[in-house]
Amino acid sequence: MITEEIYRTYVQILKEELKPAMGCTEPIAVAYAAARAKSLLKGEPKRATLEVSGNIVKNVKSVVVPHTGGMHGLKAAFAAGIVAGDAEKELEAISSVTEEAFPLIKEWVETFDLRVVVPEDAHIFDIGVRLYNEEHSVYVRIVDKHTNIVKIEEDGVAVLDRTDEIEEKKADRSMLSVDQIVRFAEDVNTDDVKEVLDRQIAFNMAIAEEGMRNRYGANIGKVLLRTYQPDVKLSAKAYAAAASDARMNGCELPVIINSGSGNQGITASVPVIVYARGLCVPQETLYRALCISNLITVHLKAGIGTLSAYCGAVSAGAGAACGIAYLLGGGEREIEHTLVNTLAIDSGIICDGAKASCAAKIATAVESGLMGLNMFYLGNEFFAGDGIVKKGVENTIRSVSRLAQEGMRETDKEIIKIMLDE
After folding, report:
1. Distance between CA 73 and CA 59 in Å, rounded?
2. Which of 45, 126, 348, 382 allows an S-S link to 386, with CB 3.0 to 4.6 Å?
């Protein structure tokens, strides 16, 4: 049994993390910031400055912004938020934009006086929107999390300033550990998590099926199913990849995110759902497996940070493998070994922004997770001293956090330079 405090915290983490978002979350955060600034400005904006960190540039540059008629990049995300965004909807800020608005969004992209700058002192996740007209100005800044507004200025006067606090008040992620996550999943009253998990199942499988039906991006899901003999393992990879391909390439269906990322939300859920359906397990068992997958993904990402040169699909693929281990009857021991094996296999895949190849990376991450799982079931494992693997699952997780946060810092800078070198 786990303590009541841990129980309440884990339920709250699931509610905080598994939120709906329309399109890739970084461009949507830009649109949200723009919509929020527009709602505060007295009169129409005549010019603007968009201040973004290099990682925001990286994650917005190549992805199609939904509800824009196929446009991509920072200017499209900004324009969509200004022209038709609804700040009250946060990460669904442009979910209600209609086709009638597309020409106006395009006009703003092409003609509006927008200056994009990358401040040297920006946080890894940092978006600032400054709007001006002849008489008034507004400034809105988001830091560290996609909806975490830390500063608002109206006509140069701060009406909100939490820059000294920065981090939103959220459930304590430091209380997460693999052993407690497994115990929580085994003990949880599924009524406490049913609503949030039902929404994840419905939304993320809907976009996966849409990705399979139609052509999006590199069509990785279809490539997998048409190249290899279909089985549940292949379907788990293919449907997750198809969901990402749709999301990265303009599909207007929402997804349920994990750790601020739609791709991570897809990867942590779709393979587990596909496996559960293939195994015909009870719905309650699926809920418990999704608790494991989602919480382990959050646990891994908490040490890595919101944005990094370390591909988030790796964490989510490891989480999904742990959820699948549970579906196959595994307990704490099986899940811990699956996680360590998986992290030993594919840690270090780089994040070079949101774009079509994310789908292929997701398929690779799920494949590594399934390899790590099957290794253990066949009596094989990686041991402490094998590369970054340490004795104990939590120590290995800390190794990965160190690799992603410290070791790949310069890698991240170089990736951004390469991407901006047209």
Report:
1. 9
2. 382
